[in-house]
Amino acid sequence: MISAGYSALDTHVLVLNKHYAALRVVSVRRALCLLFKQIAEIISVEDKQWQSYDFESWRGLSELRARYEHEHHDWVRCVRFELAVPRIIRLLVYDRLPRRPVKFNRRNIYARDRNRCQYCGKKYQTSELSLDHIVPRSRGGHTDWTNIVCCCVKCNVKKGGRTPREAQLKLIAEPVKPKRSPVITLQLTSEKYASWKQFLNAAYWNVELRD
Description:
With 211 residues, the protein is α+β, with helices and mostly antiparallel strands. 22% of the residues lie in helices and 22% in strands.
């Protein structure tokens, strides 16, 4: 039975198809299941070169990394050993996985708007933001991607049940439905996921995050 700390389970793994095209991002637990069942292999970017590993060879490499570069990796603690969390896996069986639309939820709205109030432009902690209907529901406004934005308390109070024009507020950007998971876009700014960039093309960016 594999157990892991929160930091390891909170990371994600990029999934490629047989032709090295990005498909989606899955949880660490899901990635390890695919590896253990020999449905996928690990792709590790080392000095700009791609190396592939099965579960057992990655376990051996993890022993070396645990000894010499433990602080540079996230770790899953197993009964008899520690396993370095892979960043990328490649499917050996399936050419593709079904595409899924970006989920319309609070997390993705905050990520799309980058935690910025869409009226004053200031960045806030998630706990300090609320979601605002641009056209109020009392005025027929819908709850969808194009009518919901992040809003700070001050701007929310100022706007009240009015439209932005009536409240003399202006949106810093028109809200749109994302074509890809905005959470992943934020993750790419982290050094932890730098190896993903070699497999992601801005013109072909169909990766979907699974909760």
